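Example record for the data management plan.
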Amino acid sequence: MIQLRKFDSKISDSLFYYEELHFDFGNLCLIQLEDGIVCSSFFSWEELAKNSRIANLHGEKIRKKTALMNIIEKNIFQFQSIELKLWVVGTDFQISVWNELLKIPYGKTSTYIKIANAINNPGSVRAVGAAIGSNEHAFLIPCHRVLYNNGESGNFKWGSDRKKSLIQYENPALKFQQSLFE
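Corresponding structural encoding:
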């Protein structure tokens, strides 16, 4: 089970750790505190240090460590059996979108419109897309599972080919419309 916690200034003086894993989908880099993950990204540490809000704000307090990565590697994509705390930086609206993404079952997909309706804000489809795009937790908050209403894959911070690969990995039997992969 994944639990989101809003990142606040009280923890900004803490020491952060980062770790990297290389697997079929590329690099996975995590930034974490002792009690939760702050960022999970398909960027290398060097790319993440340039692109992450957390890395930009707290770079001097980040050290390399490898303890949590073993748990992630063994349970990749299927976190029902472990508890993970994710620290997030975002507005209440963004956090409501990310919590809704956590409800999308492994191997299933949803749409931007369905997410907007689920958070009782049906006119916010573009804002939902922006919130999904600002997610700093790669597949841990499964933004890759959200498609356009017409079945096309849409954008993905870490590349549309990676998004398609993640969806196929989670459900190889899923039959997509041709337009999803064009």
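Summary line stored alongside the record: The longest helix spans residues 160-170.
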